[in-house]
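Hi all, posting the design record for the shared folder.

TITLE: backbone redesign
STEP: 1 of 1
STRUCTURE INPUT:
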């Protein structure tokens, strides 16, 4: 290759590099956080909470432990980020489902459908592992509690507004049904983790949904 060709190639490379904007520190931090959260979620789903160690997350991401701890000083902070990200996602999906309803019963049915559509997602298994671990880990409980409370309050408010729109004002019944629905959701998440018959799970969901809507709105 001639000297002139070398110069042309070098200028071309410099121009190409200059055309690509350098990512900001905020972008790099966001990318690191996203990679760590995704790795933690996947490890939780496959290996459970005890397997989701800082070293396991380090190995899964290919990052140094220092780079991870710069964003998340503790394992509890990572777990809280996994829970918070999924709460934000569910909030968006649930609110959209409610808005698609043209009547209170339809809005609630849409909300239930959106909820049970989450059962097979890896985030649900990860979230279940995190909540079970909160019993014996005060630091984890303290980190996860705020986003969990916010999400529960949103769902309770949505259900409250839907029932008020239908002329139903039995708050005690609403609290009981929400508790039951949460318990059924967690139980069916366990069934998905165990690779049970998905058709049976979907049939159970249909039965529960029908019972809940009948209890609230009648036949």
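Okay, here is what came back for every position:
SEQUENCE:
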């Amino acid at each position: 290759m001639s000297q002139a060709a070398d110069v042309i190639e070098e200028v071309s490379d410099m121009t190409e590099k200059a055309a690509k904007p350098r990512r900001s520190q905020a972008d790099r931090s966001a990318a690191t956080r996203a990679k760590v959260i995704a790795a933690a979620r996947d490890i939780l789903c496959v290996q459970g909470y005890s397997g989701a160690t800082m070293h396991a997350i380090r190995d899964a991401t290919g990052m140094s432990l220092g780079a991870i701890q710069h964003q998340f000083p503790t394992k509890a902070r990572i777990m809280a980020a996994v829970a918070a990200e999924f709460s934000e996602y569910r909030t968006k999906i649930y609110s959209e489902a409610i808005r698609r309803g043209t009547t209170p019963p339809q809005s609630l049915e849409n909300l239930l459908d959106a909820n049970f559509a989450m059962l097979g997602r890896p985030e649900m298994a990860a979230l279940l592992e995190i909540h079970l671990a909160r019993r014996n880990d005060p630091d984890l409980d303290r980190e996860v509690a705020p986003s969990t409370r916010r999400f529960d309050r949103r769902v309770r408010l949505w259900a409250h507004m839907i029932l008020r729109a239908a002329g139903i004002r039995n708050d005690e019944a609403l609290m009981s049904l929400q508790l039951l629905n949460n318990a059924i959701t967690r139980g069916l998440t366990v069934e998905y983790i165990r690779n049970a018959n998905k058709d049976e799970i979907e049939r159970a969901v249909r039965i529960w949904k029908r019972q809940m809507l009948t209890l609230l709105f009648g036949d």
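COMMENT: Confidence is low (pLDDT under 50) at residues 4-12.
Let me know if anyone wants the other runs.
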